[in-house]
Design a protein that fits this description.
Layout (H helix, E strand, L loop, with lengths): L7 H21 L14 H16 L2 H7 L3 H8 L3
Helix pairs in contact: 2-4
Length: 81
């Protein structure tokens, strides 16, 4: 609908821009947007995150504030290399 409402030259320009976008997407399809380090995540690291999340859900905010945080989560952030 929108394309037909444009003049012939505007239609050609829009089509060429669309083609450029399609071509760009085709050229980019095999490139990963994830950093190389992403694939180095281990099951052990995932388990640490799960443990931290479980502890976060179980621990009242007041307890976290009094104790200065959750040990499993502190360990998680300390272990970042």
């Amino acid at each position: 609908m929108y394309l037909e409402s444009l003049s012939a030259s505007e239609q050609e320009e829009a089509k060429s821009e669309f083609y450029s976008l399609e071509q760009c997407m085709e050229n980019q399809k095999d490139q990963s947007i994830l950093p190389d380090d992403y694939e180095k995540v281990t099951d052990e690291q995932i388990a640490k995150v799960r443990h931290c999340m479980d502890d976060l859900l179980k621990t009242p905010c007041a307890s976290m504030e009094e104790s200065g945080g959750i040990p499993s989560c502190q360990d998680l952030f300390r272990s970042i290399e």
